[in-house]
């Protein structure tokens, strides 16, 4: 099976082609700006390096959030258009679960993304990537109170809490989800975990 | 001549639209999914909500247009897409979908300027004849453009502050009319009378426009009348406002036609749907023997058919980009 993996949910962009349980070609680097300009030359290079053509792909894995709204939409739009047009299976992956593939000592791993104003997107995962506490938008102190002892935090961001830098294990995440049913590409959408400010304000007005 | 089919995508604001256009003038199929009802609750387009809706709908709209046209992407010659100006998050959805299709099917990607699209909407009505003057009037633009041939745009004037559609929407909001306010004012202007004293917008030798003074005058007038406890005659105020706007738009447009010795006038953009403007220009052009084209109402608002029409000429002129073209919130027509 040929898998295409795309993560544009943060500035740590990953595009990879995996054949069964082997990474054939991979881009995993920081892209600080103009992702929309650079993403296709990254995808083209990854395909060229792999010797696989776009129509050889069987399944697309795409990180659909949480994370940068625009970043997530870039990857998800590519994945849903790609999967829809070639009638491929597409599997959404949580950015937090992906970070939880980082090797760690302990029972639980707590991936976090800075969401500003003392909030994070966070979750609590065990060593088998099972979510003890599912992904949520949460006050960082509240998250800490949920976290069991013998846990390790992980984040790309500078947060006021001791944490590891993520070291993504793509094979682990793909093994975890290769039997997922996938979603209809039309229904593949970002998982923002947060309403827009305009919607929140409108709801406040109604209350 | 071998027929060329353009698949066009337009997501610059709050409409998700995809179209297939043959040879730059024949509409095979178009789908427009408007988010207007969603944004009405907020009194205007909320960019993040627009982006979220575009991504939900983009593949559905592409699929629907192909089904309507009974075509496959393999049969398409090029993919045209609006790259700007517009809301950056919204533009990116259409652009990423277009790039993906271009990448997978090895089809040329043709980036189209949104205003070029509005201008070429006229080509869907009847073939454009050159040289021409284009009056572009919308929520984001008020421009006079001279074109001596296809895809040759020379801007001879434009708004210095508010776009005409923007002035309409802001004035409508203060008048308590529902969003979008432009059509509401236009409807009321038909039954009202020009009784309110309002200033004439910038009336000089240039081809520039300024509507912020007129807009402020209406807003001040409403506040003053309210403070005095007077009731505003809304239809009369609508007529008075609309007359000032249309008079200056038509005056400068007719002068441009004369000075550039051009016999063809086209009108483009959402405000081209304004019945007052259509009527006045029709009268003046008849009188001056000017060949006037105004798109039908469905081509005045944002749609992908116009992007497909413009995209065809861009494609013919080899204005093809590789996949690193960026979305631009603000960009000159060229």
Summed up:
The complex is a heterodimer of chains A (207) and B (334). By secondary structure, chain A is α/β, with parallel strands linked by helices. Chain A contains six helices and nine strands, in the order E-E-E-H-E-H-E-H-E-E-E-H-E-H-H.
Greatest interface (CB-CB under 8 A), with counts per chain: A-B, 34 and 33 residues
**Helix percentage of chain A:** 25-40%
The unreliable regions of chain A are none
Number of helices of chain A: 6
CATH architecture assignment name of the largest domain in chain B:
2-Layer Sandwich
Shape of chain A, please?
globular
In the CATH hierarchy, the third-tier topology of the largest domain in chain B is known as Nucleotidyltransferase, domain 5
Helicity level of chain B: 40-55%
Mean pLDDT of chain A: 96
Indicate the low-confidence ranges of chain B by residue numbers.
none
Number of domains of chain A: 2
Tell how many strands the DSSP assignment of chain A holds: 9
The description of the largest β-sheet of chain A is: 5 strands, mixed
CATH structural class of the largest domain in chain A: Alpha Beta
Question: Quick one: overall form of chain B?
Answer: globular
User: What would the CATH topology of the largest domain in chain A be?
Assistant: Nucleotidyltransferase, domain 5
What is the CA-CA span between the terminal residues of chain B?
Answer: 27 Å
CATH architecture call of the largest domain in chain A: 2-Layer Sandwich
């Amino acid at each position: 099976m040929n898998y295409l993996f795309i993560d544009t949910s943060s500035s740590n962009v990953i595009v990879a082609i995996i054949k069964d349980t082997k990474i054939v070609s991979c881009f995993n680097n920081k892209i600080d700006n103009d992702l929309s300009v650079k993403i296709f030359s990254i995808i083209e290079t990854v395909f060229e390096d792999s010797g696989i053509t776009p129509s050889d792909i069987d399944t697309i894995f795409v990180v659909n959030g949480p994370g940068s709204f625009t970043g997530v939409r870039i990857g998800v739009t590519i994945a849903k258009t790609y999967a829809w047009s070639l009638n491929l299976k597409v599997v959404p992956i949580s950015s937090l679960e992906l970070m939880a593939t980082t090797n760690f000592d302990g029972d639980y791993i707590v991936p976090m993304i800075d969401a500003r104003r003392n909030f994070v997107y966070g979750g609590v995962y065990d060593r088998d990537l099972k979510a003890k506490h599912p992904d949520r938008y949460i006050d960082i102190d509240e998250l800490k109170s949920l976290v069991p002892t013998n846990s390790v935090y992980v984040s790309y961001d500078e947060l006021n809490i001791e944490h590891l830098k993520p070291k993504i294990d793509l094979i682990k995440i793909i093994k975890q989800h290769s039997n997922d049913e996938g979603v209809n590409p039309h229904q593949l959408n970002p998982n923002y975990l947060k309403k827009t400010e305009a919607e929140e304000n409108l709801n406040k007005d109604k209350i | 001549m071998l027929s060329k089919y353009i698949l066009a995508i337009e997501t610059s604001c709050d409409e998700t639209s995809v179209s297939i256009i043959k040879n730059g003038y024949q509409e095979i199929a178009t789908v427009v999914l408007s988010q207007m009802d969603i944004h009405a609750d907020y009194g205007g387009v909320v960019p993040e909500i627009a982006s979220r809706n575009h991504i939900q709908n983009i593949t559905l709209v592409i699929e629907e247009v192909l089904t309507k046209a009974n075509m496959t992407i393999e049969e398409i010659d090029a993919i045209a897409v609006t790259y700007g100006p517009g809301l950056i998050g919204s533009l990116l959805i259409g652009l990423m979908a277009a790039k993906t299709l271009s990448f997978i099917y090895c089809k040329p990607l043709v980036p189209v300027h949104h205003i070029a699209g509005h201008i070429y909407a006229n080509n869907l009505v009847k073939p454009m004849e050159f040289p021409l003057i284009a009056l572009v009037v919308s929520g984001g633009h008020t421009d006079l453009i001279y074109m001596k041939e296809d895809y040759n745009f020379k801007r001879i004037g434009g708004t210095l502050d508010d776009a005409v559609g923007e002035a309409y929407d802001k004035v409508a909001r203060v008048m308590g009319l529902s969003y979008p306010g432009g059509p509401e004012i236009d409807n009321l202007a038909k039954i009202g009378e020009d009784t309110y004293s309002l200033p004439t917008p910038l009336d000089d030798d240039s081809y520039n426009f300024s509507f912020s003074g007129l807009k402020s005058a209406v807003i001040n007038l409403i506040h003053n009348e309210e403070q005095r406890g007077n009731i505003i005659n809304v239809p009369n105020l609508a007529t008075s406002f609309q007359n000032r706007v249309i008079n200056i738009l038509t005056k400068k447009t007719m002068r441009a036609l004369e000075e550039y010795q051009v016999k063809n006038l086209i009108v483009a953009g959402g405000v081209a749907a304004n019945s007052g403007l259509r009527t006045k220009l029709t009268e003046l052009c008849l009188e001056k023997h000017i060949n006037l084209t105004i798109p039908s109402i469905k081509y005045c608002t944002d749609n992908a058919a116009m992007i497909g029409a413009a995209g065809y000429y861009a494609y013919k002129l080899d204005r093809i980009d590789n996949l690193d073209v960026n979305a631009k919130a603000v960009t000159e027509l060229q």
